[in-house]
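Thread: quick sanity check before group meeting

JM: Hey all, I'm pulling together slides for Thursday and realized we never actually wrote out the predicted structure for the chain we discussed last week. Dropping the sequence here so it's in one place. If anyone has concerns about the input, flag it before I start.
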Amino acid sequence: MKNPILAGFVAGILSAVTGTTIMVTSYYLGYIETDLPTNSVIVTHMMVNTIYGIIFGVIYSKLYNTIPGKGLWKGLVYGLLLFLLSNIFAISYYTVSLNYPAGAGWVGGIYVLLVYGLILGALYKK
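JM (edit): ok, ran it. Output follows.
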């Protein structure tokens, strides 16, 4: 697929499903507490991940030649880079606003962005 917007959209949705599953499971197991309605958190999480998926897909297409590796490996490297750069803000947000443990944010964040990177690496070809 040569369209970074479509590849980012698909990868964003699938990583959002991964992240939402982790978040809802953590909530029902009692690892996180929130005063917000669960449905509101799920919808917001899905929308934000999909939008960021598109944005990060376009950035991936611009950085494609500078990322080491090929295919899935290239996507994995990009996903790890995104994890390191983006989770500092995200973990602080979840910890403060949703009473979400910081360690859970790291665990959930790495799974979401690894899934995103792998799917993007599999879908996008220049």
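AS: nice. Residues 4-123 form one domain. The chain has a mean pLDDT of 84.
JM: adding both to the slides.
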